[in-house]
Amino acid sequence: MKEFYNLFFQIELKYETPNLFLKVMLIKIEMQLDAIDEVDECGDLPDEKLILSGSKKPAIYKHKATVDVTQAKKEIEIAREEWDQIGTTNYVSTSALTQTSLISSDEVLNYFRQKDMKQYLKCIKPVKQRKGFEALKHWFAGPPKLHSNLMIERDLFFAIALCPFDTSDEIHMRVLQTLYKTLTGTDRDCPRYGKHWEELGFQGVDPGTDLRGVGFLGLVHLLSLILNPSTTDLAKEISQLAKHERQNFPFCTMGINITRIVVETMREEVLNRECNRRTNIFQVTNDFYAGIFLRLFLIWRDQKKTIMDSGYVIKDLTNTAKKNSSVIFRELFSYVKRFVPDKSTLLA
């Protein structure tokens, strides 16, 4: 019995199983021992006359000849008393030693820069194909060409947008866990699948299925928004509004829709001028993403929008992003300068 008790103690340490479950198991064994006593009291009655546990004899009954029932019950009682004492004892879970470390946006981008992305690069469409009058108008009055030294980063941007989530990839999992821990404030890893992702604003129990159309870039943008010191507070405000009793919306899913707007705007070369000015692709697109999210936040909060208005809001954001991108950057810079003045230089 002591060996049995020690085994259960090890199970609880490994899997953090509640004491209640183990106590129930002890009670169940004790009931089976009682059943043996009942059988013994029945004397020589045939087996078919015995009524035990719904006409079935307990599994332990076949070992009754080798079981000292009285001694076994004493050991169970001792085990129960010791278990009650264990319930008040603190111990450190071994699972805490294997928690996933957080990851930064720069680390993620460097990972993709070093990763073989050929299978995605050969499928990208970095520039919108125009024909006829539209092509002529774009040639005369369209945005400037992207500097040649930025094209590698631009292509990588679109390649990441084609890259699906891979559970077997350590970096992918670290990004997912970082999002969860940062948004919830916990320091514990969460399961790969589950309702907890819906609580963060994904559509279902698997965030990977929400990334269709934007690939891993959707998570890169979310990560940038919540980790960038200049937009961390904004991310918290948006997340809180997303949980509003009446104005709630799926935070992460909305973010993925905004990534789609950024990808379309980038493909139409609207951001070329700003990318050339800053000589950076990802900094510009991350800020543009944050700026669109800020605009959504202000519209949603001030105009009392609800999820029923989401389609109209996204359409309005798309039009503004493509036709007046400078407004997006200007609003973001003004917000950061006003509410996070010591971080405003990060957007310059």
TrEMBL record:
PROSITE patterns in the cross-refs: ELMO
InterPro entries: ELMO_dom (IPR006816), ELMO_domain-containing (IPR050868)
Superkingdom of the organism of origin: Eukaryota
Domain named ELMO: residues: 171-325
Protein name per UniProt: ELMO domain-containing protein
UniProt source species: Larinioides sclopetarius
